[in-house]
Amino acid sequence: QVQLVETGGGLVQPGGSLRLSCAASGSFLSIYHMGWYRQAPGKQRELVARTSSSGVTNYADSVKGRFTISKDTAKITVYLQMNSLKPEDTADYYCNAQVQSIQNSLLEVWGQGTLVTVSS
Fold first, then answer.
1. What is the pLDDT of residues 19-56, one digit of tens each?
2. Cβ distance 12 to 99 under 8 Å?
């Protein structure tokens, strides 16, 4: 069983910054990817940023240059530093991980989500 716990959401003014954290816990063999998705009301869930076990990162075009994903391998934690936030960044942000379970199967694991609201 693998759990992802997100922290760091909240209300911020346009142009402000927030940092999200996602910590993984439980029993597993390895994590291949960890990243962040978001879902705004009435819209589909979309990839925001992702980092692989080797450190390769991917970003949505809409956040390039403003958001930075990083990880602490020892803490099994991934971070999303969000700068220059815009109202259109308002959404529920979900942590995601692709995990190799102790039963040697590939699992897609999601956190419970954290709300980010960008508003004046």
1. 999 999 999 999 999 999 999 999 999 999 999 989 89
2. no
